Amino acid sequence: MAVTGHVDASERGVSAIASPGPSMMKRWFKGSSAYLYLAPTFIILAIFVYFPIVSSLRLSLNRVAPFGNQEIFVGAENYTRLLGSSEFWNTVRVSLWFMVGTVPIGIVLAVGIALLLSYPVRRLSWLHRMLIFVPVVISSAIAGVLFRLLYNPVVGFINHWLSFIGIDGPNWLTDRTFALIAVIIAVVWRQLGFNVIIALAGLQSIDDTLYEAAKVDGASAWQRIRYITLPMLSPTLFFLAVINVIISLQAFGEINILTDGGPGQATTNLVYSVFVDAFVGTSFRGLASAQAFMLAIIIMVFSFLQFRGLGKKVHYQ
Amino acid sequence: MRRKLFALFLALAMVAAACGSDDPVTDPGTETTAAPTTMEGTDDGTTDTTEAMTDDAIQIEFWHAMADDLGAVVDELVDRYNSSQDAVQVNATFQGSYDDTYNALLAAFETDTAPNIVQNFDLAAQTMFDTGRLVPAHTLMSPGDADSYLAAPRDYYSDETGMVALAFNSSTPIVYYNAEMFEAAGLDAPAPDWNFSDFQATCDALEANGVEFCVTFGTVGWFFEQILANSGGLYFNNDNGRTARATEVEFNKGQGAEVFEFLTGLIADGHAPNLGNTWSDTDSVFFAGQAAMNFDSTSGARGMQDGADFEVKTAFIPHSDSSERNGVVIGGAALWLIDSEDDAKDEAAWDFMKFMTEADQQVTWHTGTGYFPVLASLQESPPAELSTFWDENPNFVTAIEQLATTNTTNADDTINYAVLGGRAGPFPEIRRIIVEAYDAVLNGGLSAQEALDEAAAKANQALADYNAFFE
pLDDT tens, B447-466? Predict the structure, then answer.
């Protein structure tokens, strides 16, 4: 996105200088050349995003045979069936709890760690940053396998360590309450590095002179964080909130490896339910497509609310 | 700034051009879009080179789902076939799990790129029948050919007219046990026809002797299906979906509740840890000496022997107290011949499939993996190589005997549909529903019967949805 913006800006400047006077031909060329530049992006988007959206809309209005050679048009049946099914509302509930469990904790932890990292420990700061960022480059599948080992109630490390302090650890992945918490911990851990890097970048862009002026005025460390850091960081926090909500609503890898949506459907979020209906054994692709659309609507609603609600409180420099 | 950008574009263009010219076989039609072309280009490239080498041979695409060590054995067999003759060249491709392979097949049907042979698993049998894109095996077999196969794998993949698919990798469930723990507790090897009470007594003896968990097993659907079959219970109506399309499940009737109560009870009463829907975590617990027994597939026999630092022995799966032992249903997968609308190709593909089930290949396959040989002759008069192997690996013999002693016919000579196994379109979903039923008992406070009734309602809905396409 940022790169396209740059090209556009320089291009506009250049052509304004180059064109001596308005003529129909040139204006047409200027207009259509923009489309030429957009074409590669548009073609790729059309093939991999827009076309699939349209065809899944079609699928969502049909009942599709498991091997795709038969489609029965059913109109809104897939949607009404979803809205009337307790399993669907359960997946929505799981998705929302999952969001509530990952987003605030993830951002607060990230800002806290970024604040610590922003006090430079001479020479080793690159090491600290690297250690924090490493989980991001681990694939969710591998992270899932690692956490599965940790969570194993019989031979896993976590319950082994808990036993030292006299706690009889729970069945992390097969207890309805702990399963969701277990997945949340794994996802927060892997997402943390990305959040920290973004928060750190935000912190470093805050002008030092603001802090100096505040110090001169006698502001305490907490007051400097409260009245300078947080307001100046608000665009970054807003960005993190929007991105993390979307990522949390689309969580899949850890759920797939750790719990397979279970126990029961305790960790089956909407995305996982789409996957199960569309790709496990004989498929219900119509129903899965309808759920994918519901998910898109939910994400849109949240993004809209965030822009309307939080967006206004953001302080832009 | 602008000059830099221009230089960057120039560099990118040169890289793109270089990549393009590297690959002379790139499909010219797709050269305009950058990212996808490179991928398609390399794919096409590899296929084209292999085709170029054996230009006159018939090319057969074979998709399978055998990873790692199993995949290596498949490749060995395919190489053996390719070097045995010049007329046919089989190209084997690993497609991921059974589910992945199946989804790849569906996509291939829609884009007309289906392979000639696909390996697909037991549960997909009805769906494969329903694709309408198969060449049933019986249309290519000579009369009497079918009799050379063991009854269980032959009948599992048969319809009213005969064999549809060729059972290739067949397995059954089996109880692996830690022989040292059994010895320490003064226990003999479990009897072949042990029931739930015998199992319980074994657990009590083991746990009294300090074993943490008597047994470990994943809350997967398969053990419920198998122990139900061993207790003579049907899974679906219409004779397990064998005499007509299954319209309702039967697992919540008859033996079902007793079997499910046994399995969930083992976990609820602390005889087994609740590890959830898993095939691997149970092995870790078993290998760590935390559990004395482990339910798993016969196909894991080799890994189980190699992974444990104690002696591993095997026993038959138990049956309910109120039934006699019936036996086991085969699991695993079969080779399916996809109609290429080219008789020569279909014949060539069939030739390869037959080759894979011939004695030499079956011996390699069995000794290398633990999937049992599907040829009857190998069990009646095993070659020396096989006898030696069985002497050295008695655990493989348990697997074979468990199936050989299965009562495929009832006392009155009718077919025992319980051990023939269920067949229904949405069987994979129904298996997931059983996984959820475990949770309904263990976390949701339902009784085994209530959980099965709830599961049956969901399963019947899935059956109705599927069957709606065939009304």
Answer: 999 999 999 999 999 899 88
pTM of the model: 0.81
The verdict on A289 touching B (C-beta cutoff 8 Å) is no
Interface test with A, best of B267, B439, B463, B470 (most A CBs within 10 A): B439
Q: Please tell me whether the peptide bond between A263 and the residue prior to it is cis, using omega within 30 degrees of 0.
A: yes
What is the pLDDT, as a whole number, of residue B21? 38
Contacts of B276 in chain A (CB under 8 A): 173-174, 259-260, 262-263
pLDDT band at B285 (very low <50, low <70, confident <90, very high): very high
Q: What value does the mean pLDDT of chain B take?
A: 84
Phi then psi for residue B423, to 5 deg, are -140, 120
The CA distance from B225 to B424, in Å, is: 13
Give, for A172, the enclosing helix (H) or strand (E). Answer: none
Q: How confident is the model at residue B438 (pLDDT cuts 50, 70, 90)?
A: very high
| pLDDT bucket at B113, cuts 50 / 70 / 90 | confident
For domain A81-313, give the fold: MetI-like fold (1.10.3720)
User: Across the interface, do A14 and B2 touch by the CB < 8 Å criterion?
Assistant: yes
Rounded average pLDDT over B3-19: 43
Mean pLDDT, residues B362-379 taken together: 85
Beta-carbon separation of A44 and B35 below 8 A: yes
Domain range list for chain A:
22-78, 81-313
Q: B65: which chain A residues are within 8 Å (Cβ-Cβ)?
A: none
* CA–CA dist A228, A310 (Å, integer): 18
Report phi then psi at B446, rounded to 5: -80, 155
- The stretch B278-301 carries a mean pLDDT of 90
Contact (CB<8Å) B1/A70: no
Q: Is B120 left (phi over 0), alpha (psi -120 to 50) or beta?
A: beta
Domains of chain B: 54-171+329-416 (3.40.190.10), 173-327+426-470 (3.40.190.10)
Residues of A in contact with B440 (CB under 8 A): 264
CB-closest option in A63, A155, A259 to B276:
A259
CA distance, residue A206 to nearest chain B CA (Å): 26
Q: Which residue of B has its CA nearest to A267?
A: B436
B305 C-beta neighbours (distance < 10 Å), count: 17
